[in-house]
Amino acid sequence: MRQVRPVFRFKKIVWWSTTTCDYDCVYCSPRDKDGKYRWPTAEQKSKLIDFIKHNSKEVNKNRTQLDIMGGEPTLWPDFMNFCEEASKYTSVFLSSNASRTERYYKNIKPGVIDDLFLSFHPEKADPEHFIKIAKIMQNKTTLRILILFFQPYFDKCLKFYNQVKEMIDNKELDIRLTVQRVDVSGEDVRRAFLKDLNKEQEKIFLALEDVRSKFSPSQRSKEYNKIKEKYHSLESPAFLVDNQEVDGQHFRNSKLNNFIGWDCYVNEGNVIRVSADGSVHPSVCGITKLKYNAYNDDITNFIDEFKTLSPVTCDRLCNCATDIKLIKKVNSLAK
Ligand code: SF4
Ligand code: SF4
C-alpha cells in the first residue's frame, strides 16, 4: 500500500504562543494579530513545560522541536525564562520580527534558541535595527532571515536584501524573499488555491469545504462518507516514493501536497499544535482537536488520548512541511 510516513521518530510541537503583536502588517491574518490572546499565566506556563517535558522524553533532544510562533512571542515579559526552561527538554525554534531592543537580544543565552527565523516586515521594520539584531544573534543560533517581499515595498525589500548580504558576516546565512499577496478584491482567498487542483479534485475540495462549514463535527463523518461514495471513480493521486525521504518543500513545489480524501494518521503523535488558548491538535493543520488543553490540564491525566490511532479523512491541502511527513495511507476516495 502506498504510504507517506516519517523517516525517523521525531517530536514537534508548533506553538502559536500569542495573537498579540506590535506590528500590524496588512498581509497578516487577523487571527495572528487581533490581540485576543496575550500569554500564559505562571500556572499555565508550568503546565505547558510539563507537557513539553513529557512529549520529548522518548526521543533524543535533537529530534525534538518546539517551534514558537505568534503574533510576536518576545513581547511576553517572561518569554526568555520560558525558553530557558523549555530548552532543557527540547530544541527551541523561534520566529520573531526582531522588534525588541539590542539589549534584549544580547541577553539571550547561547544554546537557548537553536533556530531563529527573523522576519523582515517592510511596512514597520527598521533595516538598520534589524541588521544589528541579526549580527547579535548570528553566533548564538542558526539564523535565518525571511524578507516578506510585499509589492508596495519592492525597493525597500530589495535594498534590504542586498544590505544583509553585504553586512552579515555569515556565509551559511539562509536569506529568503517570500512574496506576500493581499486579497484587495474581496475575493475568497481560500479558493485561490484551487488553481492547483484539477476539475475533479476541485469538486471534491468544495464539497468537503461545504461539509466543514455546514455540519457539526458529529455529523461530518457521515457527510464525508457520502462524498466518498459519490466520487468513488476518482483515481488516487500518483505521487509516493515509498521508503524514500520525503521533502515537504519539494512536495509543495511539485504540487503533490493534495491529500484530500486520504486517510491521514495525524493522531500518531509526532506533531502537536498548541494554539494561543492552549488547545491541542494532533497536526499543524488542526483538522481535529483533543480534549487535553496544554494550559489548563495535567498531562498525566491525558496520556491515553495520545495513543489513539484512528485516521481522519483529509479535507484540505496539506501546506505545512511538517504535516506532509505525517503518516497517510492510500486515498480512501478511491477505495
Ligand atoms: S509581525 Fe507577523 S504576526 Fe505581527 S502583524 Fe506582522 S505578520 Fe502579523
Ligand atoms: S492537511 Fe492535515 S489532515 Fe490533511 S494530510 Fe495534511 S496533516 Fe493530514
Gap between N and C termini = 12 Å
Task: Identify the CATH class of the domain at 10-235.
Answer: Alpha Beta
Helical content class: 25-40%
Question: CATH homologous superfamily of the domain at 10-235, by name?
Answer: Aldolase class I
> Which class best fits the helix and strand makeup?
alpha/beta
Query: Count of DSSP E strands?
Result: 12
> For the residues shown, what is the average pLDDT?
79
Low-confidence stretches: 182-197, 232-246
Oligomer: single chain
Global Rg = 21 Å
If strands are numbered along the chain, what order do they take across the biggest sheet?
Answer: 7-6-5-4-3-2-9-10
Give the count of helical stretches: 10
CATH architecture of the domain at 10-235: Alpha-Beta Barrel
The distinct bound ligands, ions and cofactors come out as: iron/sulfur cluster
Sheet-strand content, in percent, reads 15-25%
CATH topology of the domain at 10-235: TIM Barrel
Gross morphology is globular
Overall description:
Helix 5 links the parallel strand 5 (115-120) and strand 6. The relative contact order is 0.14. It is built from ten helices and twelve strands. It has a domain at 10-235: TIM Barrel, CATH 3.20.20.70. The chain has 335 residues and is α/β, with parallel strands linked by helices. The structure holds iron/sulfur cluster (2 copies). Residues 21, 23-25, 28, 32-33, 70-72, 97, 121 line the site of one iron/sulfur cluster (SF4).
